[in-house]
Amino acid sequence: xxxxxxxxxxxxxxxxxxxxxxxxxxxxxxxxxxxxxxxxxxxxxxxxxxxxxxxxxxxxxxxxxxxxxxxxxxxxxxxxxxxxxxxxxxxxxxxxxxxxxxxxxxxxxxxxxxxxxxxxxxxxxxxxxxxxxxxxxxxxxxxxxxxxxxxxxxxxxxxxxxxxxxxxxxxxxxxxxxxxxxxxxxxxxxxxxxxxxxxxxxxxxxxxxxxxxxxxxxxxxxxxxxxxxxxxxxxxxxxxxxxxxxxxxxxx
Length: 252
Known about the structure:
Layout: E1 12-16, E2 20-24, E3 36-39, H1 45-61, E4 66-70, H2 79-87, E5 91-100, E6 115-118, H3 124-135, H4 140-154, E7 159-166, E8 169-178, E9 182-190, H5 199-214, E10 217-223, H6 228-234, E11 238-249
Parallel strand pairs: 3-4, 9-10
Antiparallel strand pairs: 1-2, 2-3, 4-11, 5-10, 5-11, 6-7, 7-8, 8-9
Helix pairs in contact: 3-4
């Protein structure tokens, strides 16, 4: 079974002890998903406060404007920690981990005449423009930071951008990350005007075909509070676990 640590976080493991693993990215200090503590146990309130103090000190030293923690897979929060996180204005998230043996993929093809292709660097501008509108829903600063982030990713080996186009316009995209045993799907986004038309399924199908040719498993993380999980189940993915995250802004 694959673990959260098998996914690409675009950061470095800088501390690994019996209580937590710390991931840090000097290149992307704005990115919550690259700078966090992954807990290795279920802390009670006092234990969490001690670990929180450690992260506050580390993130302030590295000029990070946030705090972020993940609990171990399939581990709930204690009631006292839940109450504390709410009082301290932490936002909570639930991530579901999915895995697919490519041979188990169930085709769900769109009726629209879409063209899927791997993006070349010459067309990166169109990819950026397409995703910028979506990224702005987080914040304009986040969307601006992701522009150079996309440049960095496309230059790295094993990372490809895939798009679905209709009438030469991008209507969906994802990032494909290939490692020794797996191919990860990240940042899957479909334009709102084309949802519920199997566009995402058609694009994932291309990744599944490639994974099958390489004899590698497909993995992805999905929002556990979103209905997208039902789509992955229909495509043949199986959920292998879930984990809770908590984050908040940090005043420097």
